[in-house]
């Protein structure tokens, strides 16, 4: 069983949709988990800074939160747009499974599009959004 799952990709690529469907699966199979969603965490910490420094801080935060309870699956979904943000997340241990949602050419935000660096390390690359993969 994976203990830390990281879902990354541009805004609007389906990260949260996939995460919610994974959560449904976990609930149906009584798998304990914690969900670390970028928007929920930004809201919790009232930190809506999307500068590079703000994104690094968010990566650090999510990486740390995913280590508080390692007896459950930690499901992390956020853009994680650069190698530096991925390195910051990994300070607290690499993900056991990295899913890259590569379903769109550009997201909603030009600043994120311009800084997004396709990951060189991932376990699963989803290139086409399809309801079938989110419901299975």
Overview of the molecule:
- The chain has helices at 15-28, 38-45, 52-65, 83-90, 110-115, 131-135, and strands spanning 4-9, 33-37, 73-77, 97-101, 124-126.
- The protein is α/β, with parallel strands linked by helices.
- It has one domain (4-135): Rossmann fold (3-Layer(aba) Sandwich), CATH 3.40.50.
- A five-stranded parallel sheet has the order 2-3-1-4-5, with helices on both faces.
- Helix 3 runs parallel beside helix 4 (83-90).
- It is globular, with a radius of gyration of 14 Å.
- The mean pLDDT is 94.
Per-chain topology:
Elements: E1 4-9, H1 15-28, E2 33-37, H2 38-45, H3 52-65, E3 73-77, H4 83-90, E4 97-101, H5 110-115, E5 124-126, H6 131-135
Parallel strand pairs: 1-3, 1-4, 2-3, 4-5
Structural class: alpha/beta
Using the CA coordinates, give the radius of gyration: 14 Å
Distance between the termini: 17 Å
Number of strand segments:
5
Q: Strand percentage, roughly?
A: 15-25%
Morphology call: globular
Kindly identify the CATH topology.
Rossmann fold
CATH class membership: Alpha Beta
Low-confidence stretches: none
Corresponding CATH superfamily: P-loop containing nucleotide triphosphate hydrolases
User: How many domains comprise the coordinates?
Assistant: 1
Mean pLDDT: 94
Number of helices: 6
Fraction in helix? 40-55%
Strand order of the largest sheet: 2-3-1-4-5
- What letter string, H or E per element, gives the SSE order? EHEHHEHEHEH
The CATH architecture term is 3-Layer(aba) Sandwich
TL;DR?
The protein has 136 residues and is of the alpha/beta class.
């Amino acid at each position: 069983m994976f203990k830390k799952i990281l879902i990354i990709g541009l805004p609007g690529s389906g990260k949260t949709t996939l995460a919610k469907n994974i959560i449904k699966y976990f609930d149906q199979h009584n798998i304990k988990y914690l969900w670390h969603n970028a928007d929920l965490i930004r809201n919790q910490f009232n930190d809506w800074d999307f500068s590079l420094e703000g994104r690094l801080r968010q990566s650090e935060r999510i990486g740390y939160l995913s280590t508080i309870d390692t007896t459950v699956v930690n499901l992390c979904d956020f853009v994680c747009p650069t190698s530096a943000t991925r390195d910051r997340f990994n300070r607290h241990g690499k993900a056991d499974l990295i899913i890259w949602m590569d379903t769109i050419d550009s997201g909603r935000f030009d600043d994120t599009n311009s800084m997004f660096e396709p990951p060189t390390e991932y376990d699963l690359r989803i290139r086409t959004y399809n309801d079938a993969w989110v419901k299975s």
